[in-house]
Amino acid sequence: MAEQTITGALLLGLLEGLTEFLPVSSTGHLLLAGHFMGFESTGKTFEVLIQLGAILAILSVYFARLWALAKALPNDAKARRFVLSIILAFLPAVVIGVLAYQFIKTVLFETPVLICIVLIIGGFVLMAIDRLKREPRYTDVMDFPPGMALKIGMIQCLAMIPGTSRSGATIAGALLLGSDKRSAAEFSFFLAMPTMAGAFTYDLYKNYSRLSADDFTIIAVGFVSAFVAGVFVVRGLLNFVSRHGFTVFAWWRIVVGTAGLIGLYFYP
């Protein structure tokens, strides 16, 4: 196995962990970076499977809260409603992800120009939403009603288009439906766990027979680096967005998308 492939997996894993929970599209960043680095994974599985590292980053940071939630389920109606809300928000991604899987992997994942354009458009949308002046109705993620959660889950399906951002779509949806910035980001964290676990499981099921020992090695490298970087982001993001909002991420999307288009013009 080429040393540069291991190095590429390490760098892309760090990029995944740093961007997965930010509204900037980790998949878009990975696909663009991989394009310019000449990094090719079997069936584009690397970009999906290393998300397991980001999932474990959430679990490690939120373990105490998740354990308390699990213990409260038998006797706490509010806890049961919250779990129902997460399940309802997760279901639309299951349906769309399975039905559109081949189109997503063979067309959308292979169109870097589209990724750049969507990054830029999403940046302006996120900036506009962040600047809306409205009084939030929900400041505690546990209070999101199931109907609102289902709507957020439907909006999350926009993230099937690389460059949109799963976290960006869910955060924007929650903000538009009445949450404050902190609870919107936190709901995105909770919804990420089943969504990313489902994507990991389904992609592994579809591509397991195609993967070699070398593929699993580079996936493992990417997974570990994604976990390490993800822990730092999860620990600091809520406090950051509570103070500063999402405008900095909107500008980042616009800059990366523009730079990507320029790079593709000279190095298609």
From TrEMBL:
It is a multi-pass membrane protein. It is an enzyme of class 3 (hydrolase). Belongs to the UppP family. The chain crosses the membrane at residues 49-70, 82-101, 107-129, 187-205, 217-238, 250-267. It is found in: Cell membrane. Its main location: membrane. Its EC number is 3.6.1.27. One of its GO terms (cellular component) is plasma membrane. Bacitracin is thought to be involved in the inhibition of peptidoglycan synthesis by sequestering undecaprenyl diphosphate, thereby reducing the pool of lipid carrier available. This is Undecaprenyl-diphosphatase. One of its GO terms (molecular function) is undecaprenyl-diphosphatase activity. Keywords: Antibiotic resistance, Cell membrane, Cell shape, Cell wall biogenesis/degradation, Hydrolase, Membrane, Peptidoglycan synthesis, Transmembrane, Transmembrane helix. It catalyses: di-trans,octa-cis-undecaprenyl diphosphate + H2O = di-trans,octa-cis-undecaprenyl phosphate + phosphate + H(+). Catalyzes the dephosphorylation of undecaprenyl diphosphate (UPP). Confers resistance to bacitracin. InterPro entries: UppP. One of its GO terms (biological process) is cell wall organization.
